[in-house]
């Protein structure tokens, strides 16, 4: 028996035991649960009707959000209490216009991270994946040391 | 809108962030990731939230969250990502 999740809310079980109705191509069992999840049992269809596409797509989106979460968490923690945050709050305190300072800072931060990502993508077109992994790993290790150094030297 | 102050805060933050660790992290993470768009979104969201907290709480953040602890946690996070990149690939099957 194979299990295929063809969409988010439909679980299709393909069964290769055909003893009860070999000619049938209809679902032999279909259950709809309260949550709207449909469990369906089918005989194994001709291979062309099994499409892995939606699965792969949802997988890559999931991967994307994982990337988002790790990037967000590490950069957020690294920046908290960093000099940018300190200068932002000093400026907003000094000029009594926190939202103007925040808008300026926000635009600058978006610009620097966009620049960073563009440089990263440009590098990825020039270097082999292996070199890139090593370089990125060393960079991240250096950032880790840099953060520890900040803690130890303050 | 005070355009002078806006420009001043933009330039100050832009220069202080150029080549800083968050930008280096964005370069490192986007280069080897298949979804650089999400790296950008994650980095920008994190930076915006950090500076928003700076503006809202003022000096309160220093008392709320000890910077030492936060930075050590961040350092561990970066170290884990570094190790995952530097170790030879064997997790391609068990990575789900």
The most extensive contact between chains is: A-B, 79 and 76 residues
> Measured on Cα atoms, how large is the radius of gyration of chain A?
26 Å
Based on DSSP secondary structure assignment, what is the total number of beta strands of chain A?
4
Shape of chain A: extended
How much strand of chain A?
A: 5-15%
What is the N-to-C succession of helices and strands of chain B?
Answer: HHHHH
**What strand line-up does the widest sheet of chain A have?**
1-2-4-3
Quaternary structure type? heterodimer
Structure write-up:
The complex is a heterodimer of chains A (about 150) and B (about 100). Chain A has helices spanning about 55-80, 85-95, 100-125, 130-154, and strands at about 1-5, 10-15, 30, 40-45. Chain A is α+β, with helices and mostly antiparallel strands and about 150 residues long. Chain A has two domains: about 1-50, no CATH class; about 80-154, no CATH class. In chain A, strands 1-2-4-3 form a four-stranded mixed sheet, with no helix packed on it. In chain A, β3 (about 30) and β4 form a beta hairpin. In chain A, α2 (about 85-95) runs antiparallel to α3 (about 100-125). The radius of gyration of chain A is 26 Å and the shape is extended. The model of chain A has no long low-confidence stretch (mean pLDDT about 75). The termini of chain B are far apart. Chain B is built from five helices and no strands. Chain B is mostly helical and about 100 residues long. The chains are: A alpha+beta (about 150), B mainly alpha (about 100). Chains A and B meet through α1, α2, α3 and α4 of A and α1, α2, α3 and α5 of B.
């Amino acid at each position: 028996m194979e299990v295929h999740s063809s969409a988010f809310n439909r679980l299709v079980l393909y069964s290769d035991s055909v003893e009860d109705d070999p000619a049938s191509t209809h679902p032999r069992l279909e259950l709809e649960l309260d949550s709207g999840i449909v469990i369906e049992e089918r005989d194994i269809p001709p291979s062309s009707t099994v499409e892995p596409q939606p699965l792969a797509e949802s997988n890559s989106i999931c991967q994307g959000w994982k990337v988002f979460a790790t990037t967000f968490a590490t950069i957020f923690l690294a920046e908290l209490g960093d000099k940018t945050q300190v200068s932002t709050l000093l400026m907003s305190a000094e000029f009594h216009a926190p939202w103007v300072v925040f808008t300026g800072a926000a635009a600058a931060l978006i610009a620097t991270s966009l620049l960073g990502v563009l440089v990263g993508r440009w590098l990825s077109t020039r270097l082999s994946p292996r070199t890139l992994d090593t370089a990125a790993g060393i960079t991240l290790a250096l950032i880790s040391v840099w953060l520890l150094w900040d803690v130890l030297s303050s | 809108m005070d355009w002078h102050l806006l420009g001043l805060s933009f330039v100050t933050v832009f220069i202080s962030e150029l080549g800083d660790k968050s930008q280096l992290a964005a370069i490192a993470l986007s280069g080897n990731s298949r979804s650089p768009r999400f790296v950008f979104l994650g980095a920008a969201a994190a930076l915006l939230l950090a500076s928003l907290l700076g503006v809202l709480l003022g000096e309160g953040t220093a008392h709320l969250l000890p910077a030492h602890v936060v930075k050590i946690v961040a350092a561990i996070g970066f170290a884990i990502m570094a190790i995952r990149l530097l170790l030879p690939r064997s997790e391609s099957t068990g990575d789900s």
